[in-house]
Every structure is written in structure tokens, then in C-alpha cells.
Specification:
The chain is of the alpha/beta class. It contains 17 helices and 28 strands.
């Protein structure tokens, strides 16, 4: 694998796990690599009754997970699916999603997450672009022939599984789709060698024996893989957050290790140091120093940084090593970083330049997009034959070697940890009737930045913000749907003719502050407004206030659901919150639920 350094030791040796069957270890010129899918079989032999996965739909021991993964792998192998063949996983955050990941890899195939929360048209586009020949799903109406649907519960486990050929470090392990500048999502290809290198580099994050890791992330976010694999590959269990919102965030000490975005950490109070949460990783967005200090008290805290293209994480600031969590720290083992100027020359310490990453974590590139790959994955100017990834992030290196994140060199945004290319949102908006010009931008808020959209309509009468959001919701995943839509006569420009981002933010904030207030008229409305005020850290005083326009999102919606359930004693769900976005609508839904529960009593 390009970039692998000498001295790498096999993960299986470090974990003191049994060697996998002959021929099932991945090897490079520098030594043996463990086979991620076979590691589950090793755990099943050593500790068959240890819980491997806990999810809303039940649990799997390592023995049960191994058997289910074998069954899924067998179905794939029977269809001739193996290396370099994409397989979609269209499942919510259930125990079978984990089994499907292991089963796809056991067949030697490529894992492609298809988040059921995303629009059908987007899922169909990902299946087509990835070339998936099969999708593991209970129900997938977006599929066209000849793509096969495999029901994970209908698969039967054989006594043994033999994949079509040996697993290679250079083979694709997964493709994850991110927002694209062309208006379409683009797939990033990551190899098994990339995955193995990452898991080896971060092995100290694994929970101790008898402890578990938590996964609060959505499967469309590559951090879901990190949060799942770190416990599992070390023989520990992983607990998946309930997508229905029955639990809050797993940040209360139920698990020993968890990774979350700063937006999610900011929406919750850290548990006391006496509880079981030992390690917290902040990732996906810039982490404010005060937030890091709050969560670092009494535990190991890591501020992690890494583009999808470099396998989830490339650098981190680790409190255990004495790093300053206000920085993005130092590169992980087998990663190298350079701070370069426009001519790809080294920038002196203390000065701002663009961050380039090379080493064993650099992925294969963009699926089916050789031109874009060539532009972002560049030859190292030192002439060592390696490739380096151009991140687009501006940083400066401190005297102690730590990297400070400064900002972006382009228009890319980060919303709740997800990459957002404004061009994709703008292209979808311009395709709507009545929209002449559309510009996407970020508006800072107490709960994290929210995505906003400025629209210049074809006619002045075409001003329906909610209609725009609903139309975009049918095309784009939630994190790409603007929380705010502001109508303008024209897009403000700077003196050099560029879009004036600061003026867009001011205009959107002005529009929000001058919106008429609808009086809170019922006790239930007052409770809803109070809960929203606490969670969003801003005053909510209008019955017309919209949770998502105020900066609410799925990561903190679970906290709203839990708080309202506790205060009012009703069985509110995430789906009901999403369907009733205003204080007035949600209060009416809560009263309806309360009446129904009283009638059942």
C-alpha cells in the first residue's frame, strides 16, 4: 500500500487474538495486516457470548454477529460478488447494519451506506454511480433491475464461507458519498489498507475489557464506521443510538468511548468524571476551546481532524498526551502533513497555508471521477513518489508542531459535521419553479452553524420559504436542506464582485429578528418553547417559531424528545417532532398524544 512505513505490526498480534485462517490475512511488503471481517470470527471463537452489538432492535453476541455476517456473505458470494464490487446497505441504525458491513467485507466486496433517511432519488443515484449489483435491505423501492435486493433476515448461514479470492490491501473497502461541487454527490473510495492503517493508529481508543463504545452518528457519515469498528475490532461491544429517539445520545456515561460532533456536545452537559464515559472524541467541526475544556474534565478528550479522503481521521489533539485541544494537533502514525502555499512550497511555521496530507491513510480517490481525483490527489513535490491530498483547509503550524485550523480556502461548509458544497444545494434550488438565483451560506448560531439559502425569485409573488424547503427535502438529505430561506431582490456583492457572505448573514439574521411573533396561548406551547429555549440556547417566544429555522437538527432533536417525554409524560417520537416543526404544531400534537394515552388508561 503506498505510504506504508516499515515497522508496522499486525493488529492481531497486539490484540492477542487467534490468527485467522491461512490466506485470509491481508499482506503488504512491510508485514501482515489483519482482515477486518475475519476479526469477528476470531472474537466469536474467543468470547462467543460477549455482546458485540446493542441496538434498538436487539443485540448480537459475537457468535451471533459472526453467523449473520456469514449468511449475508454467502448470499453475495453465490451471486458472484467479490472484490471491487459495490454492495449497498440500506438499513437504519440496527444490529443488522453492523452484520451487513461485516458480511460485505467477508465477501471481499465494497460497502456503500444508503441512509434510509435520505430521499429515494438520491439513494438511486448513489446505487447507479457506485455500480452496486446488490443492496441489503428489507425494503428498497428505489431499486431498478438488475440490482438485487437481499433481505438480511432471510439469508441463511452456512457452515463455512469461502470468498472468491484473497483480500488485498489495495482493494476498495467502502465508498462514502459526500456533497459535490457539480450539484451531485461524489463517492470517495477507501481501501482495506487505508482502514487497517487507521484502526492500528487509533487502537488506544478501544474501550477496556468489559466496557463498550457508543455510536451516535448516522451511517451516511464515515464517522459511523470509525465508531463501530474501534470497539468491534478490539473484541468490545458497540451500542448504536436509537434512530427513533428513545435514548438521548449515549453521552451520559452508559458507554466508555464515544465520538460526537461539537454541535452535539454543545447541546448536552458532560456527565461527572465518576461515571463510565472515559474517552470523548470531538470530530467533524471546529471545536471551541471552552467546549473542549468542559468535556475534558476528568476524562481523555481528543479533538480529531480528517477529511473523508484520508480515511476519517488524519490528525488529533489528545489531552492524554498534553496537547492543546484548541488545535487539531499532530498527525497520526503513518500520516504526514505539509503546510504549503499556492506554488506547493513549504510555509514557515506561524504563517497560514493550505494543509496537504500524505501517507497510508490517503484514499484511492473519487469514484468514476478521474479528473477531480487528479486535481485533489497530487504528487508530493518532494519527489518521493507518494500522493498527497489537497484538503482545502487553511492552517498554521505552531512552534510545538501542532496545527491550528484557520478556515477554508474555498466555499465548502461544515454543517453538524457533514460536508456541504454550496453548489449542490444551489443547483437543486435553481431547478425549482420560481427560483431565478440561489446562494447557499452558513449562519452561525448558539447550536452550531445552520445552512441558509438566499433566493432571488422570478416574480416577487414567488416567495414561499416553506415550499422551497419541502421541495428540496424531496431531493436532498436533511443536512443539505436549508434551515432558513431568505428572499432578496438581488444577491449582495463585494467591491470586487464576489458574493458578500457577511451581508447575507446579516440580512438573514435581520429577517429572523423582524418576523412577527405569535403569542404563546396554551400551557403546552409554553412548555415546548421553554424546552426549545434550553436546548437551542436562545429565547423562543413565538408560537410560529420553527425548530429547524432556529438551528435545530436531528443531533439535538433527541434531547428535545427526551425532555418533552419526561416533562409531559407522552410517547413523543422523533418522526412526530420532524412532522410538527413549529411550537404551535408540536404543542397540538403533544396534546393529541396525551388525550390518546388517557383514553387507553
Amino acid at each position: 500500500m503506498p505510504g506504508t512505513q516499515a515497522g508496522f505490526q499486525p493488529m492481531s498480534a497486539r490484540l492477542d487474538l487467534a490468527e485467522s485462517e491461512a490466506g485470509n490475512q491481508m499482506r503488504t511488503t512491510t508485514g501482515a495486516f489483519f482482515d477486518p471481517a475475519r476479526m469477528i470470527a476470531d472474537c466469536a471463537r474467543r468470547t462467543p457470548d460477549t455482546t458485540a452489538v446493542r441496538a434498538y432492535d436487539g443485540t448480537y453476541t459475537f457468535k451471533e454477529l459472526d453467523r449473520r455476517a456469514d449468511a449475508i456473505a454467502t448470499e453475495l458470494i453465490r451471486r458472484g460478488i467479490g472484490a471491487e464490487t459495490a454492495v449497498g446497505a440500506h438499513l437504519d441504525r440496527s444490529r443488522d447494519l453492523v452484520a451487513t458491513l461485516v458480511g460485505i467485507w467477508r465477501a471481499g466486496a465494497v460497502f456503500v451506506a444508503l441512509d434510509p433517511a435520505h430521499p429515494q432519488t438520491r439513494l438511486a443515484a448513489i446505487v447507479k454511480d457506485s455500480g452496486a449489483t446488490a443492496v441489503v435491505s428489507r425494503h428498497a423501492p428505489f431499486l431498478d433491475d438488475p440490482v438485487a435486493r437481499i433481505d438480511p433476515e432471510a439469508a441463511t448461514a452456512p457452515e463455512s464461507v469461502t470468498r472468491a479470492g484473497p483480500l488485498s490491501p489495495e482493494s476498495l473497502a467502502y465508498i462514502v458519498y459526500t456533497s459535490g461541487t457539480t450539484g451531485e454527490p461524489k463517492g470517495v473510495g477507501i481501501t482495506f489498507g487505508n482502514v487497517v492503517n487507521l484502526l492500528d493508529a487509533v487502537r488506544t481508543l478501544a474501550p477496556a475489557e468489559g466496557q463498550e463504545g457508543g455510536n451516535v452518528l448516522a451511517p451516511s457519515f464515515d464517522g459511523w464506521l470509525w465508531s463501530t469498528l474501534i470497539p468491534l475490532m478490539n473484541g468490545r461491544g458497540v451500542v448504536l443510538a436509537d434512530p427513533r429517539g428513545e435514548d438521548v445520545t449515549l453521552l451520559n456515561g452508559e458507554v466508555a468511548f464515544v465520538t460526537a460532533t461539537p454541535s452535539l456536545l454543545a447541546a448536552n452537559e458532560p456527565p461527572g468524571p465518576e461515571v463510565g464515559l472515559r474517552t470523548v472524541v470531538s470530530a467533524g467541526e471546529a471545536c471551541a476551546p471552552d467546549l473542549a475544556a468542559r468535556w475534558a474534565a476528568g476524562r481523555r478528550f481528543i479533538n480529531a481532524y480528517g477529511p473523508t479522503e484520508t480515511t476519517i481521521c488524519a490528525t488529533w489533539a489528545d489531552s492524554e498526551a498534553g496537547d492543546d485541544p484548541a488545535t487539531i494537533g499532530h498527525p497520526l502514525p503513518n500520516y504526514r502533513v505539509q503546510v504549503l502555499d499556492e506554488r506547493l512550497r513549504q510555509v514557515p511555521d506561524g504563517e497560514t497555508g493550505e494543509l496537504f496530507i500524505s501517507g497510508a491513510g490517503v484514499g484511492r480517490g473519487y469514484h468514476n471521477q478521474p479528473g477531480v481525483t487528479a486535481a485533489r490527489f497530487r504528487p508530493d513535490p518532494s519527489g518521493n513518489g507518494e500522493r498527497m491530498y489537497r484538503t482545502g483547509d487553511l492552517v498554521r503550524r505552531r512552534a510545538d508542531g501542532a496545527l491550528e485550523f484557520v478556515g477554508r480556502a474555498d466555499d465548502q461548509l461544515k454543517i453538524r459535521g457533514f460536508r456541504v458544497e454550496p453548489a449542490e444545494v444551489e443547483a437543486a434550488a435553481r431547478a425549482l419553479p420560481g427560483v431565478r438565483v440561489a446562494v447557499a451560506f452558513a449562519v452561525p448560531g448558539p447550536a452550531g452553524s445552520v445552512l441558509a439559502l438566499a433566493v432571488v425569485p422570478q416574480n416577487k409573488k414567488d416567495q414561499e420559504p416553506e415550499a422551497v424547503r419541502e421541495a428540496l427535502r424531496a431531493k436532498l438529505p436533511e443536512h443539505l436542506v436549508p434551515s432558513q430561506v431568505v428572499y432578496l431582490d438581488s444577491i449582495p456583492r463585494t467591491v470586487v464582485g464576489k458574493t458578500d457572505q457577511a451581508e447575507l448573514v446579516r440580512l438573514s439574521q435581520e429577517a429572523a429578528s423582524t418576523a412577527p411573533l405569535a403569542t404563546l396561548t396554551t400551557p403546552t406551547q409554553e412548555v415546548v418553547a421553554q424546552v426549545w429555549s434550553e436546548v437551542l440556547d436562545l429565547p423562543v417566544e413565538s408560537a410560529d417559531a420553527d425548530f429547524f429555522e432556529l438551528g435545530g437538527h436531528s443531533l439535538i432533536a433527541t434531547q428535545v424528545v427526551a425532555s418533552l417525554r419526561k416533562r409531559l409524560g407522552v410517547r413523543l417520537t422523533m418522526r412526530q417532532l420532524f412532522a410538527n416543526r413549529t411550537v404551535e404544531a408540536l404543542a397540538a400534537e403533544l396534546e393529541k398524544l396525551a388525550d390518546a394515552q388517557r383514553a387507553e388508561a
